[in-house]
Specification:
Residues 306-327 are annotated as: Disordered. Residues 1-7 and 310-327 have low confidence and may be disordered. It is built from 16 helices and no strands. The protein has helices at residues 9-19, 25-44, 50-64, 67-71, 75-95, 100-112, 126-146, 161-177, 180-187, 194-206, 210-224, 230-244, 247-260, 264-277, 280-291, 297-326.
């Protein structure tokens, strides 16, 4: 094992290898791999490698933005090298703890200061950040993210470099913290379709927050007007209502879904919910009166068959009653 590796030259060696465009890439790559191997030796040797690792990350990430490297399709290889150096940097931070807020600021800069930033995992840095550093990181990330505009229903969102970077950063933060509110904040920045409302409602449902999930179902139904993901939204809302014992509310969701989009599927689902509630005849009469002639042939046949069955059943019951009275 080499324990006599010089510290300062490592970032310089990497920068020199990256700048030698006249040298074939395999030779340059070998030098970069050698630099990272030497850094690994330094990190295992104890304190003193943190600053070097941090500088080396900066050199490699800056190089990854170079158009020539991207044109030669070396970006993936370089990104893998950056990931390795970040892992070493996280280990070095454990041996030589930095200021928590200073580390948080550097991690934010690394993820937002480049056109193609690296993906930073917070877990390896958790101990080094500490509670104060992580709290500062979170507050700063949330403040920046909240300034982004919400993409409204039916709009075409503009996903520029800043939005992509902050979105990735916030997703990692939400996962690391296990914070449902952060997840909702991330998902609700794009409400361009009913499926996005469904995603938010699903996250809240899975977290056991049924009331809030139903609020997002309602918002999604208003936005979609019964189209697209509306049926899935209603299904989720009905399941949550039944779980909570709110049968009347479940029937109302099915009723609204049918009136928004009269069809066999919405009709049969409404019938199932209202029958369980015990008020299907009244609900049926009301919704059919509301839609009038605005139904397709398939639904008209279902309604006619249902009505015929009811009338036949009534006649048979009447006949049976007459026979009983004569007996």
């Amino acid at each position: 094992m080499r324990l006599d590796v010089a510290v300062d030259p490592l970032p310089g060696r990497a920068a020199a290898a990256l700048s030698r465009v006249d040298v074939p890439w395999p030779a340059r790559w070998d030098e970069l791999a050698s630099v990272v191997a030497d850094l690994s030796v330094l990190v295992r040797g104890g304190p003193g490698a943190r600053v070097v690792a941090q500088e080396l990350v900066g050199v490699l990430v800056a190089a990854a933005q170079d158009r020539e490297l991207r044109d030669r399709e070396h970006r993936v290889a370089l990104a893998g090298l950056v990931d390795r150096v970040l892992d070493l940097h996280a280990v070095a931070c454990l041996a030589e703890p930095p200021d928590g807020r200073g580390l948080a600021s550097w991690l934010l800069w690394l993820q937002t200061g480049f056109a193609e930033p690296p993906e930073v995992r917070l877990a390896p840095y958790a101990s080094s950040l500490g509670e104060d550093g992580l709290a500062w990181y979170r507050a700063e990330a949330v403040a920046r993210f909240e300034r982004l505009p919400v993409i409204g229903f039916g709009e075409t969102g503009r996903y520029d470099r800043e939005r992509w970077a902050l979105l990735r950063l916030m997703e990692e933060l939400a996962e690391h913290c296990g914070d449902v509110d952060l997840q909702v904040s991330v998902l609700s920045k794009d409400l361009s379709s009913g499926w996005h409302y469904l995603q938010v409602a699903t996250v809240l449902r899975d977290a056991g927050r049924s009331g809030e999930a139903l609020e997002w179902v309602e918002r999604g139904l208003v936005a979609t007007g019964g189209r697209g993901a509306a049926l899935r939204l209603v299904d989720l809302g009905v399941d949550e209502c039944l779980r909570a014992g709110w049968v009347e509310r479940a029937v109302e969701l099915r009723r609204r879904a049918f009136l928004a989009c009269p069809g066999v599927e919405t009709y049969t689902r409404l019938r199932a919910a209202a029958s369980a509630w015990g008020d299907w005849p009244a609900v049926r009469a009301e919704v059919l009166a509301r839609v009038g002639d605005g139904v397709d042939d398939a639904l008209r046949q279902v309604v006619a068959a249902e009505s015929g069955g009811a009338e036949s059943g009534g006649a048979e019951s009447g006949a049976a009653g007459t026979r009983d009275s004569r007996a």
